[in-house]
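step=encode ok
step=design start
structure_in=
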C-alpha cells in the first residue's frame, strides 16, 4: 500500500456586521456515526486549485457563496483513529450571499455561526483540534496574501 497525505482545504469565514465577539461559520456534520463541528472543509479534487476547492467546499457545505481574502496557513495533523495524515490548507473568506434554497452535502446536519468561546465549549465534538487553532491564528492576525498560494497548472 502506498502512503500519501490527504490534501484538504478549509475556510474561516467571519460573520459580517456583528456586534460583540466575532462569529464564525461552522458546519455540524456526521462523521463515522458522530456529530462533529468543523469549518467548511473538504478534499482537493482533480483539476482544481486549492482556492477553487475552498470556494466549492464552502458552497457545498454551507450554501454560502464566499470570496477568498487571504491564506491562513498549512496545518499538518494525524488522525488518532485512522493514522491518516491530513494537510489542511486554510483560507480566509468573506461571506457574500446565502443560497437559501441550495441542498447541502448529505453529511451536513446544519450550519452555525459560533464565537471562539462557543467552539471551545464543544471541544469534545470538534472534528479536529485545527478547528480552534485556525480561528486563534486568524484572530491573532496571521493572515497572508492569497498570492502566497500559487497554482502552476499542468507541467
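sequence_out=
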Amino acid at each position: 500500500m502506498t502512503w500519501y497525505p490527504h490534501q484538504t482545504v478549509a475556510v474561516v469565514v467571519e460573520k459580517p456586521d456583528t456586534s460583540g465577539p466575532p462569529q464564525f461559520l461552522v458546519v455540524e456534520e456526521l462523521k463515522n456515526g458522530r456529530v462533529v463541528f468543523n469549518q467548511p472543509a473538504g478534499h482537493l479534487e482533480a483539476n482544481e486549485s486549492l482556492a477553487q476547492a475552498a470556494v466549492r467546499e464552502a458552497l457545498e457545505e454551507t450554501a454560502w457563496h464566499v470570496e477568498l481574502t487571504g491564506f491562513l496557513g498549512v496545518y499538518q495533523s494525524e488522525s488518532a483513529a485512522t493514522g491518516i495524515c491530513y494537510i489542511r490548507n486554510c483560507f480566509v473568506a468573506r461571506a457574500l450571499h446565502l443560497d437559501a434554497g441550495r441542498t447541502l452535502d448529505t453529511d451536513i446536519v446544519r450550519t452555525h455561526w459560533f464565537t471562539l468561546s462557543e467552539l471551545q465549549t464543544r471541544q469534545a465534538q470538534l472534528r479536529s483540534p485545527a478547528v480552534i487553532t485556525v480561528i486563534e491564528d486568524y484572530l491573532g492576525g496571521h493572515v497572508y496574501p492569497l498570492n502566497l498560494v500559487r497554482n502552476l497548472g499542468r507541467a
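step=design ok
step=annotate ok -> Strands lie at 6-14, 23-31, 34-38, 41-43, 64-78, 85-98, 108-115.
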